[in-house]
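Example record for the data management plan.
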Amino acid sequence: MISMSRNYSLANILGESVKIHEWNLFGLPLDTFSIENAIIALNSIRWPLMIDPQDQANKWIKNMERTNNIKVIRQNEKNFVSTLENCIQFGIPL
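Corresponding structural encoding:
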């Protein structure tokens, strides 16, 4: 009897090992759940909603986009709208 193991996971189907390793270097946890969520977030057509109680995704995104001069703003900042407009206009991560 031949047994065929079917290992269907998002990481095995859509994941690229080099990219996943790069994400890990930027602070993404090594667990399958985090890797699959990262694949979904980066392949989404629109921006993803990240519920991040341990602040892991927040740190990962900031580290990954640091070279692209990511801007971090809060809604109560006085320059919120102008920063948002500039980021959209010039393609700066926000």
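Summary line stored alongside the record: The longest helix spans residues 32-42.
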